[in-house]
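Exercise 7.
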Amino acid sequence: MCKAGRPDMKPAYPQAGSYPQFADLVDTERSQVDRKVFHDEAIYQAELRQIFGRAWLFLAHESQIPGAGDFVRTKMGEDDVIVVRQRDGKIGAFLNSCPHRGNRVCMVDAGKKARGFICNYHGWSFGIDGRLVGTDGKVYDTDPDFEKHAITLTPVAQVASYKGLVFGTFDPNAPSLADWFGPFTWYLDVMLDNDPEGTEFIGGCIRSEIECNWKFPAENFVGDILHAYWTHQSGAQAILGGGVDLGPQYDERAFQASIYGHGIETNLDKTGNTKTLGYPELVDYVFSQYDKAKDRLGETRARMVGAISSCTVFPNFSFLPGQATFRVWQPKGPNKIELYTWTLVNKSMPEHIKELYRRGTMMTFSPGGVFEMDDGENWEYCTKANEGWVTRHQPLHYALGISSKIDAPDLPGHIHRGSLNDANQRYFYTRWAEFMRFDNWSDLMTAETAPPAKAAPGVAAE
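Solution. The predicted structure, written as tokens, is:
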């Protein structure tokens, strides 16, 4: 006879393990990566545990959920999550899964002024704070052993914001969001703090699928400007009237910076990215705001606001300064992603300037965008080609610029000269290997990708 007892409904947060056999697939001594990391199912499942189960992941922008009950749905790895503004103004995040049979309690992508979330299977309803507030009103209410007070939606263990961007982690023991970024916030502020009124997302979220491994787009944005010369020539000619120019400025004033696997590359050309949106008025606007940005951020970062630049926050959150596109590469297996795309602007921008940024983002980096179609095709072929039986046994080359590291005391992080470089990709995969290898935060936060000791950043020499 089955002996029944009361369930333990406390949230469970799986612990990380250690996968040295996967970490060793990144050969830092030879600057090469084993192709298995892009197609192997066991490695992908380890990524969900080791990386997406404990990294700080991007959830939303505060502007998307300004009022109590406002919410968006997103993913953390493959876990469906609701991000909702609480009545006290704080932000909470919960698994979108009823603790009764696991069904979704929210079916829509976003909403305003929600009073709660209801499972349409058995009628369990939850407040915006995740607490169970009701059932079908009959069976459970008359069951003396039913402990409604002990049942909640599983909360994301930690939720925190940085200048409008909301992040979450499933790991209660993860370091703070500030420690997760370290001094990389100096670079994030190029987009998030060049104006005192802050930023906002406009135009909603575009979702699309690409049949590629999530790491290909993440490594592309972390530091691969070289591909633009080959991949985006036709798009550049259509928009700019000429091809991509990878001239001497990419060595003379450009650099790559990496901290904890987060990476940014830039050539400090002031408006190179903005020009590709196709609206001269936007270029004029960036120039008109330059002095104000310089007073706030210093000359180096002011030059980055509209420059040819790209950035990835490890593991899968990326943006392009100057082009205003922010995106998350949500994994859906080793060979598919769902791409979430937004347009970020300063709140203080005139409305017609905001609209030009939105249109420019859609023309360049959307499912039908002239540049995104190029990139998506490349990432899909990279993923599919690496699955070949003989192909998968050949190493991949990540050795461009192995002697380009420089001492730059005014720039935070590991700095390499020139943006035509694999330096940030090497740090990205080194960080990936650290997450595969280490089961504790002490080792993760002091590993090779940790920032080198430097004085507080000032203004780099031009």
